[in-house]
């Protein structure tokens, strides 16, 4: 059954009031699929369908839904219903939802949380956006080093239901300082009388509360963990980040880089949910900035107006030279930006990168010039001297473009800017001006105008 | 200690032959960190350092190293050493390594695998690259539905050491058909006498062996699982994909999209490991293609040579119009391409997307035209009629660019192409030609040339 057929089936069962059949169908589904389906049903059907779900599934589905729909539902919830959902959510999901909701909805959620939950929510909300503290959960399993394996299992059985992950357990001292970790795999493979301190891993990889969430995600990618402890500056365990959140961060960061590269202010709202005016606001500052920067290029043309008046044929190759420079520079900058994001390229590599790019540029420039020469002579049938001017400009432009394209992102990162800004649009603007200057300089010399 | 300081310390301990101290230091490290460190040591130090590692850590480190270094090591291994490492690796890691190694190295690895391992390697190697079968592991825990919870634990204890994940166990029938799954959490929270069939989850999310690995990664992202079963067309369980592999796929796919968007043929080799010639090969076909396409734009200029000869001032705005069109179109195409990758945008949304983009384009175009008008009149001091021609072209170009930019990727995907090809470079080439046609048409009418 496709998603669409499923939605139709659900709606027709609802229309015919075959509710127990409908409840059966929904109970068999995964929460993420129900959430996707609920996006396509009419607003008034949403609360009825949601109420048909078993409570645990309802809470999971609620977490998987998007902000607008969560808001609609909360507004339709009775106090008991709201409490049911809030009680069943994990802390990090609750915080995510709170961050997206308008103030009045947040008030209602907070009102129906237990005092303990309220304290934890506030703790996580206090960390700045984009840091490890803001994506962690405080619900983890902590053990003591003098417990035995079987005592550890008792503790997991007693408290595990409410924890987001039970598979990595953290061993803390009386001062909450992180001493080690044991996985459930270690526990299962150990003797039940063994002491935790004898089997725990003490060589720990952890992150600080204020560490950038991008770094956290990269550590997950590097080490392949299922969870990572978050500690404060005194080395006390304050929470954990789980792998599913790390995966979300990886997706978000890639989207952010891609948007920046295309000269768009990044947003974490999905495209289809962003309004026209909001989309305009994310794009227009960059377009304006780049348009104003292009003035430079215009000025160069203006300066050589006389030459262009005499040799109008020179104008014909301006778009090709500009585009090729932009494309060649864009290739290098985008490659380097991605390399920086994945930590494959570091600042110390700048000269190696530049050397390689210049060699690649030389190869590319010569290939393009050779192809261009043949085309200009035999297809466009321009004079040989004009063709040679274009070819020389091509080679120099490509070398310059790739050189600038690969160095600017590395330098930007070095001085603390996001390298993704230095992608094709900016490189294009710079390369345009330079390529035209080279072009006209060569042309005026060779053609003696 | 920074990575660099650590490398220095390791090398100086090695030089002074303080080997037991060195072994102690290395044993405390994580395999991913050792692998990163080994990249920076001289080639001849590599085998000695590797031999100092405890066997389990050595195998993990080997998996975390990059291809060149693995090859170096394998060549220096004795047969026993190779067997030690190969025996300890998980199947999916072995397959990854085999896929990267030259034939003679592969032969040696295969020779030192157990016959059973060899059979499994061949099985996975037979799946086409990029499909679920090629990234799965065959080492999972399978249970029978008539086992009790305590029997299940016995089985996990007996076979768990060699399995990549033990936290999700799969319940299969005698025909290997997948019947359900239980997590270790479920097992821990259940009575030890409970039957697996009574506690197993039967509403399963799985993937087919030939499903695109990108789809597999998206399912992980959607459902937040730690592992996902892979079944053949008869519904028999053949393997599992684990979350760490899914995370790798997400990173690779994002890199691939980004490279395609910048007109580069994607590669899975890191930038610093790719040679100059190889880099050239990935870039030059696109540069050539785009250069040839720019001919079109040149032809349009050639066609209006007479007009440009009379009004050379018109030439001055060509770069700005071309760049703005390219940037505006690039913003839309890149946004839509990413939306398609994340499944936020589907084919059925094409008209909604187009409608929205045209509205955004109208807003952007008018803003740019207004700013441009002021600048042209008061900064560039061009005639009002020329300024108005430029402004009208700006608005039309931006609308056209965003319209084309958002539709082409969706259409490309519809007919089975990778939408990422339809990013800024291609859009720019198309928009260049159109914007110049609009420009000259308006100009020749208004200026009557």
CATH architecture label of the largest domain in chain A: Orthogonal Bundle
How many helices of chain A does DSSP assign?
Answer: 24
The most extensive interface between chains reads: A-B, 111 and 112 residues
What oligomeric arrangement do these chains adopt?
Answer: homodimer
Give an overview of the whole structure:
2 copies of one chain form a homodimer. Chain A is mainly alpha-helical. Chain A contains 24 helices and 6 strands. Chain A has helices at about 5-15, 20-25, 30-40, 45-50, 55-65, 65-75, 80-90, 90-100, 105-110, 115-125, 130-135, 150-160, 185-190, 195-200, 215-225, 245-260, 275-295, 295-305, 305-310, 315, 320-340, 350-380, 385-415, 425-445, and strands at about 140-145, 170, 180-185, 205-210, 225-230, 235-240. The termini of chain A are far apart.
Summed up:
The structure is a homodimer of 449-residue chains. Chain A is mainly alpha-helical and 449 residues long.
Task: List descriptors.
3-stranded mixed beta sheet, CBS-domain, homodimer, 449 residues, 24 helices, 6 strands, Tetracycline Repressor, domain 2, MgtE N-terminal fold, mainly alpha
Spell out the blueprint of helices and strands.
The structure is a homodimer of 449-residue chains.
Chain A: H1 3-15, H2 19-27, H3 31-38, H4 45-52, H5 55-64, H6 67-76, H7 79-88, H8 91-100, H9 103-111, H10 115-125, H11 132-135, E1 142-143, H12 149-159, E2 168-172, E3 178-183, H13 184-189, H14 196-199, E4 207-208, H15 213-223, E5 227-231, E6 237-242, H16 243-261, H17 276-293, H18 295-303, H19 305-310, H20 313-316, H21 318-341, H22 350-380, H23 384-414, H24 424-446
Parallel strand pairs in A: 1-2, 4-5
Antiparallel strand pairs in A: 2-3, 5-6
